[in-house]
Amino acid sequence: MKKLKRSARLVEMTQYLLTRPHTLISLTAFADRYQSAKSSISEDLAIIKEVFEEEGLGELHTLAGAAGGVKYTPKMGQAEALGIMNGICRQLEQPERVLAGGYLYMTDMLGQPGLLADVGRMFATAFAASDIDVIMTVETKGIPLAYATAACMNLPVVIVRRDNKVTEGSAVSINYVSGSNKRIQTMSLARRALKEHARVLIIDDFMKAGGTIQGMMDLLFEFNAKVAGVGVFVESGELETEDRLLEDYVSLAKLTAVDMKTKHTTVVPGNYFTSRTSV
Predict the structure, then answer these.
(1) Residue 173 in contact with residue 240, Cβ under 8 Å?
(2) What residues contact 45, with CB distance under 8 A and at least 6 apart?
(3) DSSP state of 182
(4) Which helix (H) or strand (E) holds 158?
(5) Which residues contact 131 (CB under 8 A, 6 or more apart)?
(6) From CA 149, how far away is CA 205, in angstroms rounded?
(7) Most CB within 10 Å of its CB: which of 42, 61, 231, 235?
(8) Would the pLDDT of 199 be above 60?
(9) Mean pLDDT within 98-103
(10) CA geometry: angle at 125 spanning 121 and 127, to 5°?
(11) How many helices (H) and strands (E) does the chain have?
């Protein structure tokens, strides 16, 4: 790469870090890339670190030593996240989104890159301190949320299928009971998709009683994998606490009331905003 002026180098370094979250980059790599002294690179990184933290873009961690370097961890401040989620809640409250069974139509929202990027940063913030190897979701609407989160955490995604596909090879299949309607359903995961003892973050779009997520947990047991966390975009608040199959999860929004006659709904920010302090 040709030698850049400092202003240009700062811009390029920032972009380089933003596209490589949770990746340790040595000072030597930066010095070679920009044909600059390590002392100059250190000064540049100090500027970037200050801006990241002041603007709520995340944290830049410095690791000392010969094998050290810098690592960017995307995060979103509490105030910014709450403002974004309040706007999402207003969208979810639109009467035309109410579906039979107390569900909400969200497919169009889950196709918006900006919204997905914001949600991914929120989940990445919530689980930044967790030791995670892979992100798991079940087809289909959870897929964009999982990939948005994975992009912020620099992790692979594993997709659980409703039925086994011949292109997946041999797979592990289990039956589970849907928590909301008590129906027995099936899900499967290719044997090659997940390594044993992996630490898994489960991401899902909507949770009523939590039967689907519990099914994924049971599936992980077959792989000797461990659940490192559960993130839910929207949870239903209509069930009694004792009817919910899960207790430990992070939700970004909560559907608290649905009137099927008037199509009136109430959606509020989820426990993400009550179980953590400002960053």
Answers:
(1) no
(2) 13, 30, 60, 62, 70
(3) -
(4) strand 157-160
(5) 199, 228
(6) 12
(7) 231
(8) yes
(9) 82
(10) 120
(11) 7, 12
